[in-house]
Amino acid sequence: MALYSYKALNEEGKVVKGKISARNEQELEAKLKQSSFDLISAEELKSSGVSFFNKASLQDLILICVHLHQLEKAGVPILDSIGDLKEDSDSQTIKNVMMDVHDSLKSGKLLSVALAEHSKIFDNVFISLVAAGEKTGSFAEIFGHLEHHLKWILDIKTKIKKATMYPIFLFFLLMGVIMIMMVYVIPKLTVFLLAQNIPLPFYTKALIATSEFVVNYWYVVLCGPVIFYGLIKFLCWASLAIAYQVDAIILKLPYVGLVIRKLEISRFCHFFALTYKSGMGILECLAIAGSVVQNHVLKESIEAAKTGVSEGQKITNALKATGQFPSLVIRMFKVGENSGNLDGSLQNVNHFYDQEVNDAVNGIVSFLQPALTLVMGAILGWITISVFGPVYASFGGIK
C-alpha cells in the first residue's frame, strides 16, 4: 500500500487534511467516502515518509487496548469498537491504521490478519495474542492482558530512561570538558612549560603528547567510538555467529552482564506467562517468549529448550539442561508444572526480577555518578601536577 496526503471536505463543508494508506487513489476516495469525506486532492508520499508515519507510541497502543478491552466487556461488537477508534483517536497514525483495519474486517478478514498488515505497529506478540483470542472467543480478556503487558514494557523503559539520563549527561559533560582542556588549555600551558627550558617528567610529556594527538586527530577521538560501535552492530547483523560471541562476552561482563541477564529473564518469564495465560500451548509460548529475548545466547538456549519439549521432555528439565537459567526460575517452573498454575508462578518470578533489575540499575547509577566525578578529579589532578610539578622542581634546583 502507498501512503497518501489528502485534502477533503467533511459533512459540515470544512476542509480537512490527513494521511491514509491505500492501494490507489480510487481506493483512497472510497475509504474517505465511508467516513463521509469528499476528496478534493491527494498526493502520494515517498517511502521515507511511510516509515516515519508507520510508527506509533506505546501510549497509543495502550489506549487501543484499554478502549477495546472496555468495549468488549460491555458487549460492543469488535467492528463497532474499531470504528470508534477510527473516529475518535487523537493520533492520526492510529486513525489511519484503524480505518484500514475496519475496512479489512468489513471485507471478512479476521482481526489478527487485519492487524498483521500493519506489522510495523503491531508486533508478533500482539498479533499472536489476538489470534488466540479469536480461537477462544475471549477478546476482552486478551486485550486486558495486552494492556497489562504494554504498561509493563512502558514501565521498564521509563525506569531505565530515568535512571540513566543523569549519568549519560555527566559522561558527555566530562567528555566536553576533557576536549576543551586538551584542545585549548593544554597547548597554551605547553608553550609556557617549553619556554621555561626545564626538564619535563614522563607524566608531563604524556599529557603534552595526549593533547597533541587530540588536536591533530580530533575526528578520530570523536568519530572513532561511533564508527567502532556501528561496525560491531553491522557485524552482529551480518553474522549470527559474531552476534552470539558478542552477546556471550556481554553476559560475562562484571555486574553489567548480570543486569542484562536478569532483564532478559524477566522479559522471558513475563511473555511466557502472558501467552500461557492466553491459552497457548507450551511450544508456542516458548517460541513467542524466545522471539522477544534479545541476547542471542539466551535466545539459543530457549530454542534448545523448545526442541527438548517437542521431543517429550518436561519444560523444567528442558530449561535446566541449557544451563542458562537460575535455580529460582527452574524451581518456579517446576512448582507451576506440579500445581497447574504455571502462569501464576512465572508472574512471581517476573515481579522478583523486575525488582532485581530496578535495584541493579539504581546500583549502577549510584556507582557511575561518583565514578565520573573521580575521573574528572583525576584528570584535573594530572593536569595540575604535570604543569606545576616541573615548575616547582626547577625552583628547588635554584641555589
TrEMBL record:
Cellular location(s): Cell membrane
Domain of life of the native organism: Bacteria
Residue ranges of domain Type II secretion system protein GspF in the record: 73-187, 268-389
Protein's membrane topology: Multi-pass membrane protein
Gene Ontology cellular component list: plasma membrane
Keywords of the record: Cell membrane, Membrane, Transmembrane, Transmembrane helix
InterPro entries in the record: GspF/PilC, T2SS_GspF_dom, T2SS_GspF_sf
Signal among keywords: no
Pfam families the UniProt entry points to: T2SSF
Coiled-coil annotated spans: none
Transmembrane segments annotated in the record for this chain: 166-186, 217-244, 371-393
Family indicated by similarity: Belongs to the GSP F family.
Protein name: Type IV fimbrial assembly protein PilC
